Amino acid sequence: SWIFAWLDTGRRQYLVYAVVYLAPYL
After folding, report:
1. Rounded to an integer, what distance in angstroms lies between the CA atom of residue 18 and that of residue 9?
2. At what angle do helices 11-22 and 2-9 cross, to 10 degrees?
3. What is the domain extent for residue 19?
4. Residues 9, 14, 15, CA angle at the centre, nearest 5°?
5. Ordered DSSP codes for 1-26
6. Burial level of 26, CB count in 10 A (0-12/13-18/19+)?
7. Could you tell me the sign of the dihedral formed by the alpha carbons of 10, 12, 18, 16, in that order?
8. Predicted confidence band at 18 (pLDDT cuts at 50, 70, 90)?
9. Which PANTHER family does this one have (predicted)?
10. How many domains are there within the chain?
11. Rounded Cα–Cα distance for residues 10 and 8 (Å)
């Protein structure tokens, strides 16, 4: 589906950065 391809462009990378940033607090 196109929506998953669109999400993988920027949202997925942003989510990865968010997880890495919040990891020490979790």
Report:
1. 15
2. 50
3. 1-26
4. 110
5. -HHHHHHHHTHHHHHHHHHHHHGGG-
6. exposed
7. negative
8. confident
9. OS04G0585600 PROTEIN, OSJNBA0013K16.11 PROTEIN
10. 1
11. 6
- At 4, the amino acid letter reads F
- Quick check: 2 pLDDT over 80? no
Task: Return the structure tokens found at 15.
Answer: 């989510």
The two structure tokens encoding residue 20: 């890495």
Query: Which two structure tokens, joined as six digits, stand for 18?
Result: 């968010």
The pair of structure tokens assigned to 16 is: 């990865």
For tokens 């997880």, name the residue.
Answer: 19
